[in-house]
Design goal:
Spore Coat Polysaccharide Biosynthesis Protein SpsA, Chain A; about 300 residues; globular; six-stranded mixed sheet; seven-stranded mixed sheet; alpha/beta
């Protein structure tokens, strides 16, 4: 089944180290899967060619829906416009890619996610729906069918002046209190999933391991309260030739299928990369010290 999988990474701007680490992790644990990197204005991907990826530009996947979105989009957010537009545009591009080869299973993966398993091992527990999310954070999303209805939901918002005015009024109110407001991907996912049945959650814990939502959220696991935020405790072990992390629940390890380094967590991604040069056993001991003791964890 792994040879039917296509991992989709999207990126614009300079290629960061953590994106290289994320793609490397996929290739190590999903050797037969296809990896596509879709970028906006990035020509030099020489650092990533070793991982046998297919590189494309966003401009290679035009569609009438994407053009409509770009023409009608209104930025209603406290976050940067280019980012908010880009994360929504990728849904339109993904549907174009899916229509070209509908027999494949697509995984939209964020660039701050480290995978430690074969994604096909998650498929037996995957609901029979076109869009399957691990949570309201779409960092590891399975797409097996048409996403057109979700795209229509997005386009419908921007075609409705009453909805736009309501959203803009709420944004203005939040600005006065310095509160976060974003009429973006997360909001559209929340609204759509609440009323439609073709977008569902899949189990985040099973035989394949634990699908992490955010390393800074305990999710019922043991965590350390560091200076700025919480962080899950991680215990490392050798599994064959690979270093594998586990989260702890009352001290009992639960194998991690993936770890999500959302936000500031990106700066510790490199520790979890299988490509780091220390010997496996030495690195295992070092990581266990860094990932379970507050004194050392607070240094990073």
């Amino acid at each position: 089944m792994n040879n039917r999988l296509t991992f989709l990474f999207y990126h614009y701007g300079k290629i960061p180290r953590y994106l290289r680490n994320a793609i490397e992790q996929v290739r190590i644990f999903n050797r037969r899967a296809e990896i596509m990197l879709i970028t906006d204005g990035i020509r030099d991907i020489s650092l990533l060619k070793a991982f046998d990826i297919r590189h494309h530009e966003m401009s290679e996947f035009p569609s009438s829906d994407l053009e409509t979105f770009r023409r009608t989009y209104r930025h209603i957010s406290c976050f940067k416009e280019r980012y908010e537009r880009f994360v929504l545009e990728r849904w339109f591009v993904t549907e174009t890619i899916r229509r070209q080869r509908p027999d494949r299973i697509y995984i939209m993966q964020d660039s701050d996610v480290a995978v430690f398993g074969d994604a096909s091992d998650l498929l037996p527990a995957m609901p029979d729906r076109p869009i399957c999310l691990a949570s309201m954070n779409p960092h590891f999303t399975f797409i097996t069918g048409s996403t057109s209805r979700f795209l229509d939901h997005i386009l419908g918002f921007y075609a409705d002046e009453k909805l736009i005015s309501k959203s803009m009024a709420e944004h203005s109110l939040r600005k006065k209190t310095s509160s976060i407001f974003n009429q973006g991907e997360m909001q559209f996912l929340f609204e759509y999933r609440a009323k439609e049945e073709d977008m569902v959650y899949y189990p985040t814990e099973g035989p394949a391991g634990f699908v992490d939502v955010n390393i800074h959220l305990p999710q019922g696991c043991d965590a350390m309260q560091l200076r700025r935020r919480a962080r899950k405790k991680v215990r490392w072990h050798l599994e064959g030739d690979h270093l594998i992390p586990s989260f702890l629940r009352d001290g009992t390890p639960i194998r991690a299928f993936l770890v999500h380094f959302q936000g500031p967590g990106k700066r510790i991604f490199w520790r979890f990369s299988a490509g780091t040069g220390l010997t496996k056993r030495l690195k295992c001991e070092l990581l266990n010290m860094l990932c379970q003791r507050k004194f050392f964890a607070n240094m990073t």
